[in-house]
Automatic annotation (TrEMBL):
Belongs to the cation transport ATPase (P-type) (TC 3.A.3) family. Type V subfamily. GO terms for cellular component: membrane. It holds the Pfam family E1-E2_ATPase. It comes from Ceratopteris richardii (Triangle waterfern). SUPFAM superfamilies: Calcium ATPase, transduction domain A, Calcium ATPase, transmembrane domain M, HAD-like, Metal cation-transporting ATPase, ATP-binding domain N. The keyword Nucleotide-binding applies. Its main location: membrane. It is a multi-pass membrane protein. Coiled coil: none annotated. This is P-type ATPase A domain-containing protein. GO terms for molecular function: ATP binding; ATP hydrolysis activity; ATPase-coupled monoatomic cation transmembrane transporter activity; metal ion binding; P-type transmembrane transporter activity.
Length: 1257
């Protein structure tokens, strides 16, 4: 047994010691009271003045400017008749978020009151320092049982007076700081005067966040909690709130920045700063003369600098924001009670751990902010045309409407549209596709300009790089600035990273409910503990009893609970990095663990990146109504002239140095004919065969997803004009004259597609020789692409990647439905789906398409029979094959046209889970199907290679882009190895991370439940375990085992089930409460076993002093309670790490095995060893505490009162106790393995399945 402190003597007992404050009537307390009263009167006076000032002002009408969406006015105080500033203005931000804005102005009185509040906060800290100095002044530091437990109380004179002062100050400070933290976004504005927006110095803006709740089947208590939230929290308080400064420009404009966007204030109205330049290409071409300097300055005043105004917060600000969070303030308030109650060293250890954790978080946040800021910091020189002269200016001074020169190897500082020339760009930073992209001059017509739609081929996006501008150094490429700053494509994508859509998982909704339930339980335990402490008969001051009861609340309400639900994801991030998978949003990893449907693009995702040019299939020379054989096209091989000319001209290939760039299909096609390309600047491109034949491409229409065609107008050496058009074979069937098409045109094309070919069709027409070149150039595209003559089919081959079948099979084994969403035809998609095992061999596929009348029809896709089956409309098809659809014997393929028609009725909703192949889908269609899955409550993943998949990748809950970039704004996840096995890895890590997070959550819940009972029993007996025991509970077990639990790796294969996402679900509740109940039974058994021992003497609590807790562990009760509960607690970490089917067995986690094994051995040795110096550190009752000459002050008083000495615990009893404990550990292990995660749990899951949409995998 260690040496207890025997000093210092308190000042009340030491005549030489002068007590500074003997009562509350001393000058120091009176000064503090006076400060409180003064502060209270001043602050209340200001708030009354603020209210009266507001009520006396007559209401003013609110003026809403262009673009403003009004949702009514509301007073900042809630009054409907709010005068002056009751402008609760709501306006739309990119159709995504609603904003509320309230203006405030500064006053000297209000600023003084706010400074006074800051001084109040500091004065609480000063008072605590004063109390702690009084508590520990001249304390002794010796052994583990003498670590600065108490001082001489030089300030307050006695323990009791010090305790009462601490109690009052603790409660006042707790209320003050918690209130400040909860309202920290509003406190500053409480001391500002509400005013009109035009008079405001600052504006409080609240963005109503767009949230998706990923909870379909929720408990009644969650529904009730939602209703309470909606009633208590006003709409304008649900979301992100920020108070921003109002700035005045040199031209008198008032504006504020919110999330990087500039909003202008005029009168009482607000609108987003923008520069309109028209909606059509013609409007843009009318601005080719550029701006004057005066116009540029006016626009600059409106729109501001061309920069993304994101700066990393200073390290001090980041630290203050982190440490002032509710999580850390709650910890601080609780640790203050630990510091005061003689737990100086234990509390210091815990505080250091919390500070180190906070420091890591602060560093990570700051590093992330710096990395994002680096992406935004790009300044370059720009050649701009102003005042009819070219000049170089800083890129930050560019404004929308400027005309700029585009140069080679230029990282674009803004969004532009090309008005002269062409460019080759690298857009991998935005799309993830590494292949260079050709950009063309915008036409001068009345077509609507859509930068991210059809107009993208003319748009140079900010953040991308121009590899080559034009084709000759002596000509300039000119572009028109369309957007700057946060309005650019780069700005919008960065905004999506900085302010992402909030996805609320089931456990996010349930965590507040769990906290409330734990709080209720903790308050019940608090009351029971108070009762038990009063019944022990010990000399314990009431504040000491309150502190002991408060410790129960601290352990039950663990501040680590929110962190526990994230730790698994942080470990998963590092493991995914090692596999080449990167993410900017770790919270999506757990969501990925619940994915039920995974969508895959076809070309470049399921299939190899390159396409092999197979050849062409034209018409028979003898019989033009039949197809000829498939011919390989190469230089020197004889082929039909029309075919050669079509392949040589009907493309959008360009040259980058000596390399041909553009669409890969077109590059392969052009290279096959062996012709050469000569590009001209503002002159038509020319192709020639290397000898004498040259063709001039006088006009080109790029590929259009909507039209599914691209076409060119070609002039030959004789001056004749021809049109060549290529596109999908279905579209060319409509554009070509019927007489030119072979009889079996569609059947042959579909057969090629069903055999895995990527099939295009080529048509041509000869233009009337009477037409002039000018007339031809003015002909609309629709007219040029009509009355075509069929030339040939163009065939490419695109085989699946070697690992695609394995990935799809792995997903199926994991009960995840894989579907294909492609822009290619359904027949080719069908072939790849079969090859990848996406469609089982016995399953029949029916294709839904649209006939000439615009009706959807269904036909089988076997492609083998010569007999054409009867086409069925949707109603007949569904009723005929309903049973086969339900059991998965029939699945569907559907074209984009049919999909959009069926969306207008209920049929798409009924058939959506039977569709395996979505073909001919435009980028916007891919987004639509992803949203449709989400609307059904399905967690959906998307895998693509970027490009036209970007929208769907961002829309899916977990999109993964096969991209070279380590971190891309294209989607939440990127995979550098470009294998769809990455999707399997993501799901495995997602499931493992989710299960890990819940294991840590259950461990902390068990910590609170176990040690609340532990403390209650301790208080019943009037004992408290020694300090070393608490070091091993809070400092060793919680931290080491809590970390070790997170290091388990996911299983190698996906299991048939997904981990639960419900904190209150049957699985988690049974796991926690089952283990808890078994532990309680064995704990009660251990206590009963102890009390039946003939040598046992109950701890004489009536002779103890509760404040001297270090003397309350010298007894049998402390030993039995500590060892029984500690073994049970550390074993809960072990059994919660079993892994189920989501993580590898706990035996593969060497960290937890070492930690758990070491603690088991250590505790066993401590319990079974004979008394020695080592066991005395834990006050093990093998030592005879109640000996004849005991050093224990409590047992000494007991003996002085007539009590007899009693022996220590015998080895036999300790061995039997140890075996009893091991029996309990075996029981909870069996419960967890067999019931909570084993056969019983699986049986109940099958017996009572969750209510969710069901579909065939």
């Amino acid at each position: 047994m260690g040496k207890y402190p025997d000093g210092p003597v308190t000042c009340t007992e030491d005549p030489s010691c002068y007590v500074l404050i003997k009562s509350l009537k001393n000058w120091a307390p009176i000064l503090v009271f006076a400060f409180w009263v003064y502060s209270f009167l001043i602050i209340v006076t200001f708030l009354i003045y603020r209210k009266v000032y507001t009520l006396q002002k007559s209401p003013k009408s609110v003026i809403y400017k262009e673009g403003l969406i009004v949702n009514g006015s509301r007073d900042f105080d809630g009054s409907k008749n709010s005068p002056y500033t009751n402008e609760d203005i709501r306006f739309d931000m990119d159709n995504l978020r609603d904003l509320y804005a309230v203006g405030y102005t500064h006053t000297a009185f209000g600023e003084f009151c706010y400074v006074l509040c800051c001084l109040i906060s500091l004065h609480w800290i000063a008072l605590f320092i004063l109390i702690f100095f009084d508590t520990y002044n001249q304390c002794e530091v010796g052994s583990i049982d003498n670590l600065c437990f108490y001082g001489n109380h030089v300030i307050f004179g006695s323990y009791d007076f010090n305790a009462m002062v601490f109690f009052v100050i603790w409660w006042l400070a707790a209320i003050w700081f918690l209130g400040w933290v909860i309202n920290r976004g509003r406190v500053r504005n409480w001391f500002r005067m509400p005013c009109t927006l035009s008079e405001a110095h600052v504006i409080n803006v609240c963005a109503l966040e767009q949230r998706e709740v990923l909870s379909v089947n929720v408990l009644f208590i969650i529904k009730l909690f939602r209703r309470i939230q909606r009633r208590i929290i006003p709409p304008e308080s649900r979301g992100f709130s920020e108070t921003v400064s109002v700035t005045k420009t040199s031209q008198g404009l008032h504006f504020f920045l919110f999330r990087g966007e500039r909003y202008l204030i005029k009168g009482n109205g607000i609108h987003k700063a923008s520069i309109p330049f028209g909606n059509t290409y013609a409007d843009i071409h009318q601005c080719e003369s550029g701006l004057s300097q005066e116009e540029a300055e006016q626009r600059f005043a409106i729109i501001g600098k061309n920069e993304i105004p994101f700066q990393p917060d200073p390290l001090l600000k980041t630290a203050c924001a982190e440490l002032s969070s509710l999580f850390h303030v709650y910890q601080l308030i609780m640790y203050l009670s630990w510091f005061w109650n003689s737990y100086l060293f234990v509390a210091s250890l815990m505080a250091v751990i919390v500070c180190l954790s906070a420091a890591v978080t602060i560093y990570t946040k700051h590093k992330s902010q710096v990395a994002i800021a680096e992406l935004t910091r790009h300044v370059t020189q720009v050649d701009v045309y102003r005042n009819e002269n070219w000049s170089k200016i800083d890129s930050r001074d560019v404004v929308p409407g400027d005309i700029v020169k585009v140069s080679d190897d230029w990282l674009l500082p803004c969004d532009l549209i090309i008005i002269r020339g062409s460019c080759i760009c690298d857009e991998s930073s935005l799309t993830g596709e590494a292949a260079p992209v050709q950009k063309y001059q915008a036409p001068n017509n009345t077509g609507t300009y859509e930068p991210e739609g059809h107009g993208s081929r003319h748009t140079l996006f900010s953040g991308t790089r121009v590899l080559q501008a034009g084709t000759h150094q002596d000509h300039d490429v000119l572009a028109f600035v369309t957007a700057t700053g946060m309005s650019t494509s780069k700005g919008k994508l960065l905004a999506a990273i900085l302010y992402p859509e909030q996805m609320v998982f089931k456990y996010d909704e349930e965590l507040p409910v769990v906290v409330i339930l734990l709080l209720i339980y903790a308050l019940v335990c608090f009351s029971i503990a108070l009762l038990f402490l009063n019944l022990t008969g010990s000399e314990t001051f009431w504040v000491t009893r309150w502190i002991y009861c408060l410790a129960i609340i601290n352990q039950v309400m663990s501040p680590l609970l929110p962190v526990a639900l994230e730790v698994g994801q942080l470990q998963a991030v590092e493991r995914l990095k090692k596999r080449g998978i990167f993410t900017l949003n770790p919270s999506r990893i757990a969501i990925a663990g619940k994915i039920r449907i995974f969508c895959f693009d076809k070309t470049g995702t399921l299939t190899k990146e390159g396409l092999d040019f197979v050849g062409v299939q034209g018409l028979e020379r003898q019989d033009a109504t039949l197809f000829g054989p498939v011919k390989v096209v190469s230089k020197g091989v004889e082929a039909d002239t029309l075919i050669i000319h079509g392949l040589a001209t009907c493309h959008a290939v360009s040259k980058y140095g000596t390399r041909y760039v553009g669409n890969e299909v077109e590059v392969k096609m052009f290279q096959a004919v062996g012709w050469q390309l000569i590009e001209g600047f503002n002159e038509p491109d020319i192709v020639f065969d290397g000898n004498s034949e040259k063709l001039k491409i006088v006009k080109r229409y790029e590929f259009d997803h909507t039209r599914a065609t691209m076409s060119v107008v070609v002039q030959d050496s004789q001056g004749s004009f021809f049109v060549y058009c290529k596109g999908s074979f279905e579209k060319l069937e409509q554009l070509c004259s019927e007489r030119s098409l072979p009889k079996d045109y569609l059947k042959v094309a579909q057969r090629h597609a069903l055999n895995g070919c990527y099939v295009l069709s080529l048509g041509y027409r000869s233009l009337d020789s009477g037409l002039t070149a000018e007339e031809i150039l003015e002909m609309p595209r629709d007219e040029l692409e009509m009355h075509l003559e069929f030339v040939s089919l163009i065939l490419f081959r695109n085989e699946p990647k070697a690992d695609s079948p394995a990935a799809i099979e792995a997903l199926k084994e994991g009960e995840v439905r894989a579907v294909m969403v492609t822009g290619d035809n359904a027949q080719c998609g069908h072939y790849i789906a079969r090859k990848c095992s996406m469609v089982a061999p016995q399953v029949q596929i029916f294709l839904g398409d649209v006939d000439a009348a615009g009706s959807v029809f269904w036909m089988p896709m076997d492609g083998q029979s010569d007999d054409v089956p009867e086409a069925l409309n949707t109603s007949k098809f569904f009723h005929q094959y309903q049973k086969d659809l339900a059991c998965g014997l029939v699945e569907l393929a559907i074209t984009g046209k049919a999909f959009n028609i069926l969306r207008t009725s209920e049929w798409m909703e009924r058939l959506i889970f039977s569709v395996r192949i979505f073909a001919r889908f435009r980028p916007e269609d891919k987004v639509s199907i992803t949203k449709m899955y989400r609307d059904h409550g399905i967690i959906v993943g998307m895998c693509g290679d970027g490009g036209n998949d970007c929208g769907a990748l961002r829309t899916a809950h977990a999109g993964i882009a096969l991209s070279e970039a380590e971190a891309s704004v294209v989607s939440p996840f990127t995979s550098k190895d470009k294998s769809i096995l990455s999707s399997v890895d993501l799901l495995k890590e997602g499931r493992g991370a989710l299960h890990t997070s819940f294991a840590c959550y259950k461990f902390l819940i068990m910590y609170g439940l176990m040690f609340s009972v532990f403390k209650l029993i301790c208080y019943w007996y009037g004992v408290i375990v020694c300090q070393m025991s608490y070091v091993f509970i809070d400092g060793v077990a919680v931290l080491t085992l809590g970390y070790a639990m997170t290091t388990s790796h996911p299983e190698h294969v996906l299991g048939k089930v997904r981990p639960t996402s419900s904190l209150l679900g049957l699985l988690n509740v049974a796991s926690v409460f089952g283990v808890w109940f078994i532990n309680l039974m064995f704990l009660i058994g251990a206590i009963c076993f102890m009390e039946r021992q003939p040598q046992y003497v109950r701890w004489p609590a009536r002779y103890s002093h509760g404040a001297d807790w270090w003397t309350l562990g010298d007894n049998w009760e402390s030993t039995v309670l500590f060892f029984t509960m500690y073994f049970q607690f550390i074993t809960s970490a072990f059994i919660f790490t079993f892994g189920s089917s989501f993580r590898k067995s706990v035996f593969y986690n060497w960290i937890i095995m070492v930690c758990y094994g070491s603690l088991m051995v250590l505790m066993s040795v401590l319990l079974l060893l004979p008394p020695n110096g080592f066991t005395s550190l834990w006050h093990v009752a093998s030592e005879q505490f109640n000996s004849a000459n005991t050093s224990s002050p409590v047992w000494k008083l007991y003996q002085d009162a007539g009590g007899s000495p009693s022996p220590g615990m015998s080895f036999q009893f300790r061995l039997q106790l140890w075996l009893l404990i091991l029996g309990g550990l075996a029981t909870i292990t069996i419960w967890q393995k067999m019931f909570a995660e084993g056969a019983v749990a699986r049986y109940l899951a099958r017996k009572f399945p969750s209510m969710r949409p069901k579909f065939h995998i």
